[in-house]
Specification:
alpha/beta, Rossmann fold, 2 domains, about 60% helix, about 10% strand, binds adenosine-5'-triphosphate
């Protein structure tokens, strides 16, 4: 099975694009969902987070208070590195398992793995999981505008997040395929259609 990593900056359209692939019955693995699951009560990362950040990181139900954790790591880069070191191996273990399961459970010739921070966090072993990197690319001003409207936040907040992400050029340099998402949804759908055909062809050659 061909395994495609899908990445892109905040508000670039990753979810929109992965939904379009899903509508074509292409299986999608979403590392954002996995990142939420690995901190569930009782999971290894749950205990490690409490061990490092203390019981104050729990809410009244003893779940990890994700917004509190986000605030801490956003303001303290060193804490962010520690959190990433806890989450990263757990997320990738699960991604590998899900890809393996798909090999047995789907007829699809390829799958998409959505990894928003692929280029910010990837190590060698993760790169080996993927046959290709698909970058959703959007002009920065449009990225800000779309993220701002979606999250009802101000431009500064979006720009702060963008500063923690790799540059548009770095993403484009790493891409095997690029989906320019600077126009309307109908055109995006057409671009996904042609990419779908290309991936089906490439999967045959694998
Ligand atoms: P994040 O990294 O912040 O989760 P994302 O990359 O998943 O964002 P989306 O949520 O897919 O981005 O898109 C951001 C917003 O822009 C959404 O509200 C989406 O509906 C809208 N959007 C995406 N592509 C287009 C487009 N081509 N035309 C109009 N709106 C779009």
């Amino acid at each position: 099975m061909l395994v495609i990593a899908l990445t892109g900056g905040i508000g670039s359209g990753k979810t929109t694009v992965s939904d379009l692939f899903q509508k074509k019955n292409v299986p999608v693995i979403d590392t954002d969902i996995i990142a939420r699951q690995v901190v569930n009560k009782g999971q290894p990362a749950y205990h490690e987070i409490i061990h490092h950040f203390g019981n104050d990181i729990l809410d009244s139900e003893k779940n990890i208070n994700r917004s509190r954790l986000r605030d801490i790591v956003f303001s303290e880069p060193q804490q962010r590195q520690i959190l990433e070191a806890i989450l990263h191996p757990e997320i990738w273990k699960e991604v590998k398992q899900q890809i393996e399961q798909l090999q047995h459970s789907t007829d699809s010739d390829y799958c998409i793995v959505v990894v928003p921070l692929l280029l910010e966090t990837r190590g060698q072993s993760e790169s080996e999981e993927f046959d290709r990197i698909l970058v959703v690319d959007t002009e920065e001003q449009l990225q800000i505008e779309r993220a701002r409207q979606r999250d009802n936040c101000d431009e500064k907040q979006v720009q702060q997040i963008m500063k923690t992400q790799v540059s548009r050029q770095q993403r484009l340099d790493a891409a095997d395929d690029i989906l320019h998402n600077n126009t309307d949804l109908q055109q995006l759908r057409q671009k996904v259609d042609s990419l779908h055909k290309k991936y089906l062809q490439l999967a045959k050659l694998k």
